[in-house]
User: Fold these one by one.
Assistant:
Number 1:
Amino acid sequence: MREIKALCRIYFINMLSNKFVFIFNLLLPTGYFIFQNHRVIGKKMSFNEQTLAFLSYFWAYIILVTLLNNVIVAIISQRESGFYKQLYFIVGSKWQILSSQVSVHWFILNIELLLFNVVFMSVTNHWDMRIIFAAFLVSVIVSLPIILLSSILVLLPIKIESLNVLTSVLIFGAFLFLKLPEGKLLQDVVTMFNPISYIAGTADELLLGFFHRAIASQFIWCWLIVTLIYSLVGYFSVSKFTVNAVAKRV
Amino acid sequence: MHISHYSAQYGHRVLARDFSMTLKPNVVNILIGANGSGKTTLLDFIAGVATTKVTGVKYDVPKPKQIAYQLQQVQFLPTLTVAQTLKMYQELGGKTTTFHDDVSELISPVLDHIWSTKMGQLSGGEIQLVSTYGQFLLNRQLYIFDEPTSNVDSHNTEIILNLIEYLVLVRHKVVLITTHHPEQLADLPTHITTLN
């Protein structure tokens, strides 16, 4: 525990020195949300199904981009620079390093979601603590599966310089292929395999569960199947994860 | 500690075939070899992080958790200060000594000047020195240094070699280093192995 605490402090100090990522993770979606809704600022809005679905896609963006950039891309760039290998021989466990990094950025993710939700409730002029709690719950439920799925990127022999381009393409692609026709379970599973659909779907169902109706049973089955696939992908990737750089010798 | 039947291949290049070496206590074990001869690959094998195209048998070599391994191109988070970096070593690596404790006269004149400097603002030689001192703060059975004095000036080289000497002769640790300048260690008890 002492090691994880010390590692968390190191990653926290390092993260605070790289404030630019917050522009991409938080300021960009927040600015876009305000721009989209500037005409209704201050008018009291109800949280109908459409509003909640709209909100869930913003959460999905913040969660996916934060976990990809701050956790997966950071792990790959640290490994390729040799820092990860050096740290491994100081700590003695790759699990402690990974769990510290995930913990710090999961905490940051929740701060980002909280700030976004404050803006959201200010714009809609509707304050409800269930929004804050639902966002926290979504981050608890989806963060680990998303990290596990994204960890497949650590197996790619990709240069650090190309990594940000790749993640931008993946995020863009995830939004581009967001919706397949809804209907049968298999179609829903294929749709939900897209991480944006997975996060937004989870968030939407939870929000609907909080505000309107019970969570749909087909959604739960679909979610369990996709989470299992994400976990298998993650298990495979993490078991193959090496502390050595993949793209070049360090 | 002993390594035998070591064979390594990097792409199509055969780096070693049926190579053996022994790591002795109370001397500085030096591994020498030309550039590209596979010294780092051998160190990775000993440290337990080798790639799959490396085979061999290790006798009495500790597990990675009991090995301190300083890489050739030392990397740290550039935003951490020297103080934060060394504190990290102390907190993460099993505390054996406090800062400036038993080697204070040796290290403090250098560290005092850069204590609050960020790692990203240090010269290559200063980074090597901080890293070597960091390894010194760890309590391990085996210490591996991959070219610890490359790009280091003569004054800092002397400090680094004194730290390594202290590990061997005072703490009685097994130390393995690679270098292209074995003459720098002429005053120390050494055991040299050549990797052809």
Number 2:
Amino acid sequence: MQYPRQWNLVFIAWLIALVSTLGALFFSEIVGIEPCVLCWYQRIAMFPLVLILGQGLAKADAAAIRYALPLGIIGALAAFYHNLIYAGLIPQDLQPCGQGSTSCAQIDLQLFGFITLPLLSLLAFAAINTLLFIASKAPRNEK
Amino acid sequence: MKNKSILLASVLLALLAFFGAARFYQSQQAENMAAQGSVNSEQLVRAHAPVLGPADAKVTIVEFTDPACETCAAFSPLVKGMVEQYPGQVKVVIRYAALHHGADQIVRMLEAARLQKPYWPLLETLYQNQAYWAQNHQADANKVAAIFMHEGVDMTRLAQDMNSPAINAIVQQDEADRQALKVDMTPGLFVNGKPLTEFGVGQFKALVAGEVARSYGQQ
């Protein structure tokens, strides 16, 4: 992994994943908002990023970027879909989680009138993917 | 080496922020609950609610229960034990929070059976056979019917009673009070109007002991 530019990019991506992971755990475990199915898909993509990128940073191994990107893209897709449901652009009967106790369309938390958890999730995934993408394009003359 | 220190420091900082925020949030919640708790005494105890213990006991434990809830079944002996532990000083009032799927039907059946048989053994039978009739958090009314039939309940009468206006009123009142008191987990316990803010056996015993001491003086 290239110092300092590539390392720093991955480090910022890792920090975002760390804050997102702890934030998600805060809202589910402390505040008690039960995650819906789509939230779980985003969590499945987000939580491992902390470990994969963290290990990559610790070992200065640029390969971690390649392992992390697919997760980040899947997470971003799930978050994007979730935001469409929140915005009402996808009708109720198409959402995959109508039967459970928690509906994906139910907005549990809203800050300043427009910041919701799926929006934060989408922003986090978008930022992580962008950073990792730029980092992956860095010249690899050093390993 | 420097990289790892930065990583470690970040993780520690993030964890510190997490637990700090958790502590802050929980203390805020406890304050809010304590502030609203005792105001709503009317919503806690209704005339229709089953009571265990002497009517003139100064300490009232209100338990919002779901017959299909496993923790309620586990907590039940402890809650009822308080009546024996503090004879004449504590009474228990049962309200319903039918949160499990199909549990409202079971509440109706229980209330209808209560018109025929003593209430507390019926509730205990439900709790003890919970694993049979409430598998995978799905309450099965047919299995409860089999249990009640075995207990000698007249099922024809029960079928008529369980959808009567009187029992409709009980179910609706309990649900309205449950929502007003924000009981969204069971068992929802209140002692003399004070909610059990931090759930646990020790915390519950301490809350009851504190209220007994306050109402009857130190023993």
